[in-house]
Amino acid sequence: MPPKLDLGSERAIASEVGARDTASLVKRFSEAPISQTGPLVDNTAHSIVIAALARPEEVESIVDFAIELVPKLQEVKEAYPSLARDRTFLSAPRPSVRGAGEALRAALTCELHTAILRASQLESTPQEEEQDRAGLPRAYWYNIIGHALLASRLFVKGDATWKEGLWPLVEDALQRSLFSHGATTYGSVAVNAVLFHGAGASLKAYLAPQGQRTGLGDKFVWYDGEAKDKNAEWGWEDVRVRLTAGASAADRSAASDDKTGIFQHILQVYDATASRFLDNAPPKSIEDADAKTIYSSWAWLSQAQNSSEEGFGKFSNPVDVAESTRALAELSRRVQQLSEVVQSCESRRWQGGVGDAKALRGIAEEVERLEEKLKGAWQ
After folding, report:
1. How far apart are the first and last CA of the chain?
2. Which of 10, 21, 110, 284 is the S-S candidate for 94 at Cβ 3.0 to 4.6 Å?
3. Coiled coil where (predicted)?
4. Do 54 and 74 belong together in one domain?
């Protein structure tokens, strides 16, 4: 079994990511044995995603933090080998890379890719999918949109290496929606609405003919998990034509039947985003929206943060989870520090250590209360 980090370390990493504390993370990686580098990479990548879900309006600073962190980790653990992981039906592949920084980039991209893949891939028949859509909780959409938002802004602000790593995510998302043969998921509509709002201009510049990249695969078949025309190539103009054609009649019919109004709002944002690409204006004339602008366009999104509905995978209140995790990490460090003080006092028969012991007990009780809150946020 691969090594794991202890709970205290996981919480400390979450706290350092939340505080954008690059120096502490670099120090943590530099001091860790090689056997712990993999778990450190995975936990840091996951903490970045959680931070983005907890504070979508702060995604720009989270993206800047992730981009800054990668080369710094590469310097301190340049020789670390990260093995490749194969693609499965609903899990994205992960390339083999060398260095902790490149491993973090690969882990973060893989986690985002897997979330987008699951949102864009039918897991049942189209008829069953149709029946399931009406009952989807707000937190399900919150989860999808949060991952797509982080991915889109990383694509825009990252350099060529980031774009290269994120391209398989984008290609899968477009292949399963705009280049699909028949049924698509509601999730893919939400992904595209965010992706083109946050990175549409950058995608236009990246794809042929203005860029060098062409997508591969047309007529994606959901029950085969692959494109019917595997060798079909497509560039920006193909994307633009299909994007501006609008959502399918089936999606619009479903939106009119959705009593929550959520999917109808998603389609409205999708239509507004697609309309920006109706002409052939140069990329600079169409600015990619930043995270705060995108977040503000989803009027119902903030309600998901305080929703009591059961979320996708019981992720019903990401804000409480992230905030509790950060607070617990900080309190855990304080407990450890005070434990050392108390042990020192004990060696002197508690001379002057009574106040420290009381403080330790008070913080320990606060940790227990926050742990109960953390558990409740996942139930």
Report:
1. 28
2. 110
3. 321-348
4. yes
